[in-house]
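Morning F.,

Quick status update on the modeling queue. The single chain you submitted on Monday has been processed. Sequence for confirmation:
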Amino acid sequence: MTDISALFSSPAISGAVGVERAVAELRAGRPIVLSEAAVRLLVFPAENLDRDVAAVLQNLAGGRANLILSAQRLRRLGVERSAPGLIAMPTIDVERVGALLADENAHIDAPVSAPGAADEAALDLLRFATLLPGALVVPLRDPLPQLQEVNGCDVRSYRAKKVLSLHLVGRAPVPLEGAPNSEIAVFRGGEGLRDQAAVIVGKPDLSGPVAVRLHSACLTGDLFGSLKCDCGDQLRHTARLMAENGGGVILYLDQEGRGNGLANKVRAYSLQAQGHDTYDADEILGFGLDQRRFGYAARMLDLLGVTRVRLMTNNPAKIEALRAAGLDVTDQRIQGRPTPQNIHYLATKRDRAGHYLDVDLPPAGGG
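Structure tokens below.
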């Protein structure tokens, strides 16, 4: 009979679990150790740095600490790069780190060097944890057994493994307003310990193209009816259209704020209130145009038996992602209603990210 410790310690299982434990530690504001070949780094999320932590890290680092930042954040600081970079931190100063991490008016104040594989894996962990993409990294000579340790190889393979591990854990009828004959199915195995959900509206015919929407969770728009975006409108409009036209599938994906997480979305809203557009606000915080990945969506459709898709979207990236996953995809344009509060947001999505928006919108920078 298999020993229970052996059952739960296979490389595939332990690697993913190690990444998830590291993500949980980082989200809790605790450091982790990241190893890569002969390199071992202590990694601490820069957004959680305070004076007490800085003093401890300073003592441990002995002047060898670095701050790793994404290419997007470095560009905002005045350094044109296509990859992340390291800034030396001989002294770990809380105010300096905070300014380099997210101050919209900050400028680079030291040379930027190329990161190693372990440094870049640290940024990947922060993305999984939906934290700001900046970390203090300290080279270690000796292990720190009291801290969670994770291998860089496991970090890089994590997303692909989690897509394959996605599985259905439950489904039940849930009548919705405008789509009373609906069912919700929940899938477990998404990255960052987040479940994903599918809403099956009506009884879609799986032998032909199925109406599908990939809808990223939007707390502000879906639940509270925010006028700053068109998400809630698209969600409810899609459900009604599907109910009236043979059914369909809405994949409700936990990818708030284009994959940046709720806290960073609200930080970006604060910058937008100061006059920045949605993509510039994200770049100030160190994010690219869109951090979302749709491998989970393709896997969910596969588990539901959907192979041919009529995708209800205005986002060309979603169409390309499902086609790249091997699905037969046609598209049906859908959009929410323009409001005075979101019209420039919609124009920005059209002009900077190529969204298919047919309403009469001003140029993205227009008044």
